[in-house]
């Protein structure tokens, strides 16, 4: 199945070349010259045509084998024993690009090559097809009233617990997390809220009643088992999830990943109430040595006077919360925000929350093995910003958080 240069070298991806995106695979090369250097290279092209690459130099053992799960990388995109290093260290050829996967009907194809470390000759290659949807899953585009998004329904006999996946600021729709979560036995609605189909491109305000409509749609869906639904969110949408949890009924379990306890960027309206965005503190915006904008401290402290009008009243919420915060998040100070939210709940006698923090992780904590995004375009700032984090620690945080999310929804939505 691989292109052989010399009939004996084989590159294997185990247990199979087909896997789910969030699963670990074992990369193994056999039939090499013993003790000789071999470079392993990985390459993927995302939905915008951006090429991501990683590579690492290994030495074959006395049997002429390299097993990435147990052999240390000597140099390259990572070093040491890193079973999934060829995946998480994939870096874009165009700086400040975040890996984009829009539609999950097709797999992400990661090409892996074994290259002779002495003369650069390609010895063997194989492609890992990293899928998002299990056999029999339905992916249904949603255009219901004002609501726009995609609904994932797992195979088998429902009804299933329902989860709404709110993705980040920047418009459009992101499906990977929603589809991979649906594989675990949930009906998941990936909800768009602007810049998608006929939704406004540049809204002046966000309307919480839109999200209320979506929550109602999901909770009364015949495939969804109530009474309440779950929410999963990240970044700007973390605030939306906290607003929904504070003002709407029928929310049972909310995951907020690197979110903000205050409203940000756009005013948020609910009925006759408007919550203004937190006022940015321009003098706290700095530049990194490489000239990137760093907005980590651009928002006022949540406990300060100027924040008051923008803080979501999460003491009103009756759901359970999982707050996940990266200590090296440079989009904003997620840890301060999460700790403030936890303190507010405690002050009101509410213990129904968990808080998990990740040292050295950056802003975009996503599904396991998603390529690390160190910097990128920020829709609200209008330029490239630094997102923080160190690739290896960030990768480990994504794996840990994914397990945590399964446990949390399993315990509080039932499955």
From TrEMBL:
This is Acyl-CoA thioesterase 6. GO terms for biological process: acyl-CoA metabolic process; fatty acid metabolic process. Belongs to the C/M/P thioester hydrolase family. Residues 24-144 form the Acyl-CoA thioester hydrolase/bile acid-CoA amino acid N-acetyltransferase domain. One of its GO terms (molecular function) is fatty acyl-CoA hydrolase activity. InterPro entries: AB_hydrolase_fold, Acyl-CoA_thioEstase_long-chain, BAAT_C, Thio_Ohase/aa_AcTrfase, Thio_Ohase/BAAT_N. It comes from Tetraodon nigroviridis. Pfam families: BAAT_C, Bile_Hydr_Trans. The active site is at 235 (charge relay system), 329 (charge relay system), 363 (charge relay system).
């Amino acid at each position: 199945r691989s292109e052989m240069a010399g009939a004996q070298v084989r590159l294997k991806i185990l247990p199979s070349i087909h896997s789910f995106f969030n699963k670990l695979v074992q990369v193994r090369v056999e039939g090499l010259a013993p003790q000789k250097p071999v470079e392993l290279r990985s390459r993927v092209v995302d939905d915008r045509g951006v090429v991501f690459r990683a590579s690492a130099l290994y030495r074959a053992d006395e049997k002429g084998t390299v097993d990435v799960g147990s052999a240390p990388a000597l140099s390259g995109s990572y070093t040491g024993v890193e079973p999934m290093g060829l995946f998480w260290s994939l870096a874009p050829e165009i700086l400040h690009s975040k890996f984009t996967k829009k539609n999950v009907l097709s797999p992400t194809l990661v090409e892996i090559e074994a290259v002779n470390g002495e003369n650069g000759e390609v010895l063997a290659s194989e492609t890992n097809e990293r899928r998002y949807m299990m056999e029999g899953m339905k992916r249904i585009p949603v255009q219901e009233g004002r609501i726009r998004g995609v609904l994932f329904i797992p195979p088998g006999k429902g009804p299933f617990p329902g989860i709404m996946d709110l993705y980040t600021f920047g418009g459009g729709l992101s499906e990977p997390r929603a589809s991979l979560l649906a594989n675990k036995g949930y009906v998941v609605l990936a909800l768009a809220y602007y810049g998608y189909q006929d939704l406004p491109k540049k809204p002046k305000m966000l309307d919480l009643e839109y999200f209320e409509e979506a929550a109602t749609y999901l909770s009364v869906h015949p495939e969804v088992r109530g009474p309440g639904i779950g929410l999963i969110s990240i970044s700007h949408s973390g605030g939306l999830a906290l607003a929904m949890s504070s003002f709407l009924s029928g929310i049972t379990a909310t995951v907020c990943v690197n979110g903000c306890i205050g409203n940000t960027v756009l005013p948020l309206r609910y009925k006759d109430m408007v919550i203004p965005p937190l006022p940015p503190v321009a003098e706290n915006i700095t530049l990194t040595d490489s000239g990137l904008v760093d907005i980590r401290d651009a928002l006022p402290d949540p406990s300060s006077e100027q924040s008051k009008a923008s803080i979501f009243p999460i003491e009103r919420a009756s759901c359970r919360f999982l707050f996940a915060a990266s200590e090296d998040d440079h989009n904003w100070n997620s840890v301060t925000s999460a700790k403030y939210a936890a303190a507010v709940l405690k002050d009101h006698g509410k213990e129904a929350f968990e808080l998990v923090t990740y040292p050295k992780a950056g802003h975009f904590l996503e599904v396991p093995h998603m390529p690390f995004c160190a910097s990128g375009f920020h829709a609200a700032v209008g330029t490239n910003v630094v997102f923080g984090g160190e690739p290896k620690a960030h990768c480990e945080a994504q794996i840990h958080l994914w397990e945590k999310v399964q446990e949390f929804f399993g315990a509080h939505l039932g499955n």
